[in-house]
Q: What sequence folds into this?
């Protein structure tokens, strides 16, 4: 085993101290050997494509110019190949400039949709999940039955949930419009307007995501020391004061994690938008992830533009995650 | 995540999670007025109804004939029969897609677990140079949008001539499955007391033998849950499947079922029974896995 096989080896170690490296190798070789398969897979399947993707975002690669050589069959059955004159080439920041100025694609519309989508979904996931967790934490008959039944939406594969809600939001015969008509309201053409289409997607995703929050927060509630409640009620705290001053601070470690995870998952949620609204009307309800997918795999496949989307989405998430963690740290995260 | 993240969340915090279950009991039953008891049950009943209704409605629809599905009248039953199920199973490619999904998900699961089990153990037990960077990499890969890897992986697969094969999907799913499994399993290994390792070392076992003969057998429930969840993630994935697979006989469930409901001439009488049949195995697997699932996720997420 050599140092080059081990990407996570620290860079700080100067090369001229082989003895120190050898000592380190002697002490840690088994740990490194154990992580080697994972590191290998990550390097080949994640890092290499990632580097390739970043590189592609600086080229003008599309379906039409991806080949290095063009080969033509000759009459004799052989093949002659020559360099593709229109081969994809380095174009610098052109993709980024075009995307961010709206020259190509509809970045800002999709960005706004993504923000509305993520904030609405995570907000309702958290508040509904929290309310249900607080209710389920009490002891009463049927508690575990409720708990199991409320988890059902989590057990349904996401594309199936998306189809189910698409079925219910159907403009012609969907249950939701039928119900609206039955109670004397006008049916809504859900997928003919940007915000109603997005609304349908958000409802679907809230339905899918609440159980995870509920179960995670329920776990958090159960890890709060019950003596704190006793002390608070001895001091005459009302239930609401107990919730504000004992429950919420006690839940903070769990809620930090689930809100971070939930935001990232929702931001990247592909099947709901893709199946429920399909971007209708005319691509106005796309979020960034589905926008990137359509750029890459529909119409003239513009791989480089999709790669640019990918780099921008990932950068946004990394910035978000680090700002989020820094903000929490400055509040003093240990309660 | 670094060491700065709170340690307060115990992996055993969730109902019945894992061997190190030392949570405090739920609050003692306080006097509750009948009114608030009714309100409690009413709220939970409404929530349960909302949670179950879409599934139930799809099931009811799957029993109706085509004309009744596509009518705007609200009725629970309309000449119920399993004809739609028979049609999906015998007149469409649904069974092929089903088998394809099983194959792809099973191989993803096997590769994910076998490539990451030792790493999960090393991350749980040892301090070694590069550990932090590796944990950080796992976290960032969970953040990866499908958009950033799908294009380069597609072009790499196209160069290798693997487009439209199940293998290409398995490889693509491993990009998520391997770091995810390592992350989850580390959480489970953390719940196994270190004293066992020390005892094994005193008995003369090396780190590999300790892992293989002492820890791995104890971690079986955790591995099973990680495996289940990896299976379900691959089972429900659609973006790669839609992009990579072109021919009907290689499609997996999500991508295939999409063909039942194109823009025009939507065949809901095929989609609804197919949806129910996809849901049943997923649901069964899920309910065995879910108790331990959140514990692993949040434990991995908060300790570093």
A:
């Amino acid at each position: 085993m050599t140092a080059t096989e081990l990407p996570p080896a620290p860079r700080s170690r100067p090369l001229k101290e082989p003895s120190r490296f050898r000592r380190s190798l002697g002490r840690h070789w088994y740990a490194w050997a154990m992580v080697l398969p994972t590191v290998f897979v990550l390097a080949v399947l994640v890092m290499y494509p990632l580097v390739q993707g970043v590189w592609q975002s600086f080229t003008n690669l599309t379906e039409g110019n991806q080949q290095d050589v063009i080969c033509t069959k000759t009459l004799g059955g052989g093949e002659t190949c020559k360099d593709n004159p229109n081969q994809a080439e380095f174009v610098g920041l052109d993709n980024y400039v075009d995307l961010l100025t709206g020259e190509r694609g509809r970045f800002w519309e999709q960005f706004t949709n993504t923000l509305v989508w993520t904030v609405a979904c995570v907000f309702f996931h958290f508040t509904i999940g929290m309310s249900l967790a607080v209710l389920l934490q009490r002891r009463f008959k049927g508690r575990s039955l409720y708990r199991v039944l409320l988890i059902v939406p989590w057990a349904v594969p996401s594309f199936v949930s998306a189809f189910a809600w698409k079925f219910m939001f159907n403009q012609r015969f969907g249950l939701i419009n039928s119900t609206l008509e039955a109670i004397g309201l006008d049916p809504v053409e859900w997928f003919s307007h940007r915000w109603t289409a997005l609304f349908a997607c958000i409802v679907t995703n809230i339905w899918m995501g609440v159980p995870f929050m509920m179960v995670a927060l329920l776990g958090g509630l159960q890890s709060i020391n019950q003596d704190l409640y006793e002390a608070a009620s001895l001091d005459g705290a009302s239930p609401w004061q107990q919730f504000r001053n004992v429950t919420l601070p006690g839940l903070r470690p769990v809620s930090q994690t689930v809100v971070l995870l939930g935001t990232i998952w929702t931001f990247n949620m592909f099947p709901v938008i893709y199946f429920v609204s399909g971007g209708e009307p005319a691509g106005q309800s796309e979020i960034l992830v589905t926008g990137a997918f359509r750029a890459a795999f529909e119409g003239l496949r513009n791989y480089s533009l999709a790669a640019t989307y990918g780099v921008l989405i990932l950068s946004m998430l990394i910035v978000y995650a680090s700002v989020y963690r820094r903000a929490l740290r400055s509040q003093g995260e240990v309660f | 995540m670094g060491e700065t993240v709170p340690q307060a969340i115990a992996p055993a915090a969730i109902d019945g999670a894992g061997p190190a279950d030392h949570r405090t009991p739920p609050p003692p039953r306080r006097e509750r007025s009948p009114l608030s008891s009714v309100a409690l049950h009413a709220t939970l009943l409404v929530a349960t109804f909302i949670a179950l209704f879409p599934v139930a409605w799809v099931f009811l629809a799957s029993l109706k004939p085509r004309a009744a599905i596509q009518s705007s009248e609200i009725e629970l039953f309309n000449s119920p029969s399993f004809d739609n199920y028979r049609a999906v199973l015998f007149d469409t490619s649904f069974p092929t897609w089903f088998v394809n999904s099983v194959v792809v998900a099973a191989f993803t699961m096997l590769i994910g677990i076998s490539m990451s089990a030792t790493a999960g153990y090393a991350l749980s037990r040892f301090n070694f140079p590069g550990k932090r960077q590796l944990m950080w990499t796992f976290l960032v890969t969970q953040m990866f949008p499908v958009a950033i890897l799908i294009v380069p992986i597609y072009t790499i697969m196209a160069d290798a001539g693997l487009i439209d094969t199940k293998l290409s999907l398995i490889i693509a799913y491993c990009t998520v499955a391997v770091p995810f499994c390592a992350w989850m399993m580390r959480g489970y290994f953390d719940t196994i007391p270190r004293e066992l390792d020390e005892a094994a070392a005193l008995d003369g076992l090396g780190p590999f033998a300790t892992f293989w003969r002492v820890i791995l057998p104890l971690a079986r429930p955790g591995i099973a849950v990680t495996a289940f969840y990896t299976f379900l993630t691959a089972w429900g994935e659609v973006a790669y499947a839609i992009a990579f697979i072109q021919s009907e006989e290689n499609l997996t469930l999500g991508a295939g079922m999409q063909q039942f409901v194109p823009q025009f001439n939507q065949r809901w009488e095929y989609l609804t029974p197919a949806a129910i049949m996809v849901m049943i195995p997923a649901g069964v697997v899920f309910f065995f896995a879910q108790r331990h699932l959140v514990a692993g996720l949040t434990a991995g997420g908060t300790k570093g």
User: Anything to note?
Assistant: Confidence is low (pLDDT under 50) at residues 1-7 of chain A.
